[in-house]
Write a structure and sequence with these properties.
Distance between the termini: 58 Å
Structural class: mainly alpha
Largest sheet: 3 strands, parallel
Strand content: under 5%
Shape: globular
Helix content: 55-70%
Oligomer: single chain
Number of domains: 2
Number of helices: 19
Strand order of the largest sheet: 2-1-3
Number of strands: 3
Length: 449
Amino acid sequence: MLKTLKVSILMKKNQEKSIQILLVIATFVMIILRFLWNEKGRVNPDSIRYMRTSKVFPTIDNTTTPLGYPLSLKFFTLFGFDEFWASKTIGVLAYLFLVFFAWKKKFFYKEIILVGGLFSFVSIFSYTMSETLILPVMFVFLYLAHQIITENIKGIKAVLYLSLALIGLYNIRYPALFIMFATGVFGILNYRKTYGKTFIYSGIIGLIFVILYKFLFIDYFNNQYVNKFLEIGLHPTSKLLKELFLGMVTVFNPFIHILNPAGGIVNYGIIGIGLLNFALMIYLFIKTKLKETEKFFLTIGFLGIACSFFIQYFYSVNALDYRLLAPFSLPIWLVYFKKLWQLIGKFTYGITVLSLMTGFAFTWLARGNYLENRKEITQFLHAENLENGRINFYMENEEQLDKIRIAELISTVNPNVKVTFKPDDTLKNNTLTKYKVLQKIKIDKNQFQ
């Protein structure tokens, strides 16, 4: 009887291990397909800035983003990659690191596989954006916090490790400032506990670094940064609340994380699923007993989202979405899947499986052909003698999305691209326009962008 029970348990463990391996493989493949089946390889206007910053370094022509991500691109170019392929290598390695680190440390291993396979996170890992780099650093930060809470790391060592993790996060994305704030708040709420002061001190050290960074780096290269980007009353509350609602129901929709810009009945389904899932999240967080580590995760996640909302009153950013909120949604998803597993067990894997299937269907229906487009652009730039050096891309205004996509595609071959809105620049030999490009080549367009 006992032997039969042991065999049964072993079979169940092997079955679960097989499911996990298959999910990791499927996620890995989907990350690659996500940018290959795209007309411009999953880049956006910010990607141009990242790749250009990497290309021209050590010249500093941009302080609107920290140097962490551009320098990581630079590092991989040392191995023969260009900036575009370096970004894709980072995305794939970031996902694999999350899985390996979780497995090695036995830290939310099952949950990281479940979260990493969600279509929204697959989209992030396939993007040429700094979120791909911040997610693994964020996970290490969460692990260090767990070690401190469980008193496996104490004293000066704990403050040093946590502070370095916070500084590392800030050097990848400025919103890490919110993580520093949330870390300090968590410490204040738990100041009577042995680890409380560690979080307070680390949050303060992080904030001191931010101040020094502002005066010693940002002001040195761009003393108009604050005046240019800070503006009181930038958006009305009614608009921001609507964007927050739509952001939350898509960020926490396990299947579809993007609304149809044209509207329609499909959006009601996407919003409905996201709303129900978020409601279930909150219910589980309230009704189940949370461990100290889980409380920290939720503090970081929800305070980070709240700060991301309020900063919009002063700082111009895109509407909150799955990408911008990824560092904050990650810890929330981890706790949610842990609680959901306690409720429904292995059926939890079904959510990630369905998400991957949905992602594959969407990616297939919306597919472009990046490799073919890259070939066309490469030949065009070679013919125009613009495969190296600065390229200006002229647009009348920032709203012309169909034109910026051409610039984005060009940047994947020659990252030294700068968008210009000056008509006089069109007289220069190194200035391109949409008309000039499409007059000579044909680009395979993505049906749903």
